[in-house]
Amino acid sequence: MNRQIKSPFMVVLGVLVINFLGLFSETALNIALPQIGKSFQVSSGQTQWLVLGYTMVVGIVLPLTTLISRWVKPKIILAFAAIVFILGSLIAVLAPTFAWLFIGRTIQGISTGLFIPLLFAVTLLVYPANKLGSAMGIIAVVMNFAPALGPSLSGIIVNCLSWRWIFIIFIPIAVVALILILLTVPDVIKQTKPEVHFLSVLYSVLGFGLLITAVGMFSDYGFKNIGLYALLAVAILFVVIYVRRQLKLPAPILNFKIFHSKKYALATIIASLNFAMVMAAMYILPQMLQSGLQFSVSEAGLILLPAGVVNAFVALMAGRLYDSFGAKGLVQIGAILALIGILLLLRVQAGTSLWYIIGVDIILMAGSGLLLSPAQSYGLGDLGDKDSNDGSTIMNTLQQVFGALSVSVATTFLIVGQHASQSSSGAVRYVAGAHVSFLWVTVLLVCLTFFAFRLVDERRQ
Question: Whole-structure pTM over 0.90, yes or no?
Answer without folding.
Answer: no
